[in-house]
Amino acid sequence: MLKSMFHTGFIVDDVEEAVDFYTNVLGFRVAMRMERQGEFIDQVLGFDGAHIKGAFVDLGEGHQLELIQYINPPSGPGGINRNDLGAAHLAFYVEDIDAFHAEKSEQGLRPVNPPAPNYDENGNLFRKVMYAQDPDGNWLEFVELL
User: Fold this and answer.
1) In what order do the strands lie in the sheet with 7-11?
2) Could you tell me which of 135, 132, 138 has the C-alpha nearest to residue 66?
3) Does 50 lie in the same domain as 11?
4) CATH of residue 56
5) Does 110 map to a domain?
């Protein structure tokens, strides 16, 4: 029986570059670093000779993002589109999404488009939403509630 959410994992090309992006661009903190190989991780991942490096980063609210670099076997080319089966995204609430878009786009965030206004059935603007990718192509969503 499920108890609670634990973390979300993203596969990255270089864990140090990913940690730099998530900490210095998006404001996460490093909760833990790890490196795993051997029988345990072989069984968990289903790869003989598996070797991974990673880090858990968070915003101090409980849910963590695990950034995983595969040393062995190496990762494939990536390139998952947001509409591909198996694609996933991680969503965040932000304040002032327009300023966030401008600032973070200059720092390596790759938005699909500028923030999109969303109106309710009475024509009232109630939120703005933006999809983007991190430097490794992982999908992120940012939402400002108005």
Assistant:
1) 7-11, 64-72, 51-58, 29-37
2) 138
3) yes
4) 3.10.180.10
5) yes
Tokens representing 1 are 């029986």
Structural domain total, the chain: 2
In what helix (H) or strand (E) does residue 19 lie, and over which residues does it extend?
helix 15-20
Task: Record the pTM.
Answer: 0.91
Q: Give the span between the Cα atoms of 68 and 14, in whole angstroms.
A: 8
Give residue-wise pLDDT tens across range 32-89: 999 999 999 999 999 999 999 999 999 999 999 999 999 999 998 888 888 887 889 9
Residue 129 lies in a domain: yes
Which domain covers residue 58, as residue numbers? Answer: 7-72
Q: How far apart are CA 49 and CA 7, in angstroms?
A: 24
Instruction: Write out the two tokens for 141.
Output: 């969503």
Closest to 94 measured CA to CA, from 103, 107, 85: 103
